[in-house]
Structures
1.
Amino acid sequence: MKWGSFGRAVLGGALVLNAGLVSTAWAQDTRQNEGEKTMTTRFLTTAEGRIAYDDTGSGPVVICVPGLGDLRGEYRHLTPRLVEAGYRVVAMDVRGHGESSVSWPDYSVASIGQDVVALAHHLDAGPVTVVGTSMAAGAAIWAAAEAPERIGKIALIGPAVRDGGPLWKSRVMSWPFSGPWGPALWGMFYTSLYPTKKPADFDAYLTKLRANLHEPGRLAAVREMIASSKAASEARLSKVRVPSLVLMGTRDPDFSDPAAEAKRVADPLGASVQLIEGAGHYPHAEMPEVTTPHLLRFLGERRTEVSHGS
């Protein structure tokens, strides 16, 4: 999350509050999404908490990890396309989000990476591919560097894997999400991440997301993730030896220059880069018909160890 896009969210949220719409947003959040396909939630219990996940399809395993402030449903448009192509898709809720438990002692990128490795170990299906969005891309990097025997490939979508400034700025950025207006404010920011087009089910999904953020402990998890350092992922960029792909929307508002940021992440990884023209922070949800073929091509490539030289 960068200051520019965050500032727009704060301004938009302030307008909502001044218009007296928070109570309306709250009421919308409590409604159920009609017609949404239900799946059986599975859980992985660790020493620190419980991780919720879906397990769909059969074939090589792809673990999908959503970004901060989002749900595993972020991958609802990508999952059926991967399953149809012959993959087993496991989409997880990161700690503190969705149906995963709250009150974890740590919400850092390393801790999320540990959860990814634990889930891969639990599935026991050989080296898996990890698809991570935003901060979760940093978790994928951490997991690949620390457990290459479990992680065979990583695909990074809109990767926010570097600190954008001193940590006090990140802490300040988390403060506006402390009050009852937090879910509405996050919804304003979240909406801005789809600059070109929104999925047909976007309104229903946003309602579900805001409802989840009203649950006790959810906003606290979002604040902790916003305020945490990404140094653990940046430090491991050059240590990853598995094949990597960076997918970046050319209109991703989280970055002043999305193409340049994609290159900064890809170069030390030895990764390939695919820019999705016109897409924002979630190209796999905004333009799944464009994004999926690039990901399938990457998944189908034979695994070879990446060398970064001496």
Note: Residues 65 and 196 are 23 Å apart (CA to CA).
2.
Amino acid sequence: MAAPTRTKPGRQTQTRVVDSDSRVLGYEQYVNEQVRSTARSVRAMDVSLSILRLVVGLLVVLLGAAVLEHWVLPGGLAGWQRYLVFGGLTAAAFAWAVRDLWPLVARGINPLYAAQTIEQASPSLKNSLINLLLRRAGLCPARPAAKGPAPPTRRRPRSARR
């Protein structure tokens, strides 16, 4: 039973007795919510880094085209060459978005990866969160607890060992 909690000096609140099953369920809900929250954060970070890579790549190509037009080619690029650069840039950006950005948006982040991210942030967990998720999924069965020393093995007499 839990002791009464005090909210203000002199006032006691009613204490609710919570059985162990619902308390464990509460812990599992808390762990699940933390893993989901971390997965959302990881996805947002991956998407923003991918978009940043795209923008930097586009700026590098446009800067290269500008340098090529103004300093390398006498008379600059012709109209069809500019359209070719623009079309190639658009096609490359679309292909990149389909290959790199779409999987991040369409698929979920693996909960084990999110758990690994949480464990890297707080090393005191020591792989326990990943083990919890693996055991809950049935991928890592729990070992039976050892119950005292192992029973002695029967040894055959020396005469029977040959």
Note: Confidence is low (pLDDT under 50) at residues 1-7, 10-19.
3.
Amino acid sequence: MKSNRFNRLLMVLLGCCSISWSVVAAGLTWDELDSEQRQLLQRFEGRWEQLPEERQLLLQKGADRWQDMTPKQRKRAQQQFSNWQALPDAQKQTIRDRFQRFKQLPPEQQKNLRKARQRFKDLPAERKQQLRERWKKLPADQKRALRDKIIDRPVIIRKHQTVRPTDKR
């Protein structure tokens, strides 16, 4: 009796999965986008059906994010995009490569890097400039050692201090 009920449940779940998979596999038609999404993505209308499904989903997700932004957030996003477009291709590729390496790090190391970046962003402008200048003067092996230290060692941030636990290796 239990086995029969389990088999029916399994069949229903598999049926649902196959239906949802076929929807994902088929991609999105232009008409499935809402009017705001179509307006934002209008430059893709003529070739929408030829875009890979993954690209369609990413564009739809981006349009959704844009719709959820405040005017201030939109202005900042436009400025960041303009800055990106102004970068030389070689620098864009370097950034893409670093991002791929970051995504391959374990979650704990990603967390440590995000915290370190946030601490840097929170510094006064003159202190950030001092650190940038110091960084430029460091030899490559010292830069590598500092990067490793930031990635590998947890950082505990308290209100007015940063405590680095001792390395017990």
Note: The chain has a mean pLDDT of 80.
